[in-house]
């Protein structure tokens, strides 16, 4: 006998599926960057070495998200597990997508702000995991010890080092670009001045 109500469905997303979605999004962004490059837009920060370093460092966020999952998966949050995983993997996915291409998919300022936002988001998640563990004192589930989960989580914080270096590099580029614009604006005659 079935009741008139609907039952909730439990949706599980595997890491492989999440990975494939990230790769497809990054490929789409790379195609968009290539189209922009063909149009001749050259006012984009480009440092291939730094892009590669940021991309590789983003995988520390990926490993750290697994450590965070060990904490957040045990907390009584009353939220679907896929939603918790999505929130935890968001910093990695954001950084991975913007650093997958040879050149940034947009200007230097949004790129820098996304890096800063991902670092802040990840830091807030780490603090939330530690605060939640302090408040609820949930024991380890037996699969992964809390010490190992904590090591993974703090390993993700190591990616802050190359991210800060990239942010500094972008900031230097922005300052140089604004100085060049100021020099060009100062050397050109003003529209109202006639000689």
3D structure, described in words:
Helix content is 70%, strand content 0%. It has helices at residues 15-38, 48-72, 81-99, 108-136, 146-157, 160-187. It is mostly helical. Mean pLDDT is 82; it is low at 1-5 and 38-42. It has a domain at 45-174. α2 (48-72) crosses α6 (160-187).
Short description:
The chain has 195 residues and is mainly alpha-helical. 70% of the residues lie in helices and 0% in strands.
Strand-helix topology:
Blueprint: H1 15-38, H2 48-72, H3 81-99, H4 108-136, H5 146-157, H6 160-187
Helix pairs in contact: 1-3, 2-3, 2-4, 2-5, 2-6, 3-4, 4-5, 4-6
Please supply descriptive tags for the structure shown above.
disordered N terminus, 195 residues, elongated
Radius of gyration: 22 Å
Number of helices: 6
Indicate the mean pLDDT: 82
What ranges have pLDDT less than 50 throughout 5 or more consecutive residues?
1-5, 38-42
Q: Describe the largest sheet.
A: none
Strand residues, percent: under 5%
Rough outline: elongated
Structural class, by secondary structure, is mainly alpha
Order of helices and strands: HHHHHH
- Give the beta-strand count: 0
Summarize the amount of helix as a percent range: over 70%
N- and C-termini, Cα separation: 93 Å
């Amino acid at each position: 006998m079935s009741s008139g109500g609907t039952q909730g469905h439990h949706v599980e997303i595997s890491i492989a599926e999440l990975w494939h979605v990230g790769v497809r999004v990054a490929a789409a962004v790379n195609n968009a960057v290539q189209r922009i490059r063909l149009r001749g837009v050259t006012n984009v920060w480009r440092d291939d070495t730094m892009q590669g370093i940021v991309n590789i460092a983003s995988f520390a966020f990926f490993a750290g998200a697994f450590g965070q999952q060990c904490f957040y998966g045990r907390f009584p949050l009353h939220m679907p597990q896929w939603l918790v995983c999505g929130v935890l993997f968001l910093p990695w996915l954001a950084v991975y997508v913007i650093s997958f291409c040879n050149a940034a998919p947009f200007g230097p300022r949004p790129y820098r702000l996304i890096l800063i936002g991902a670092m802040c988001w990840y830091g807030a998640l780490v603090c939330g995991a530690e605060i939640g563990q302090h408040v609820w004192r949930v024991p380890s589930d037996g699969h992964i010890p809390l010490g190992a989960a904590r090591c993974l989580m703090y390993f993700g914080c190591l990616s802050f080092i190359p991210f800060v270096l990239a942010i500094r590099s972008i900031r230097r580029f922005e300052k140089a670009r604004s100085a060049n614009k100021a020099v060009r604006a100062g050397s050109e005659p003003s529209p109202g001045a006639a000689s």
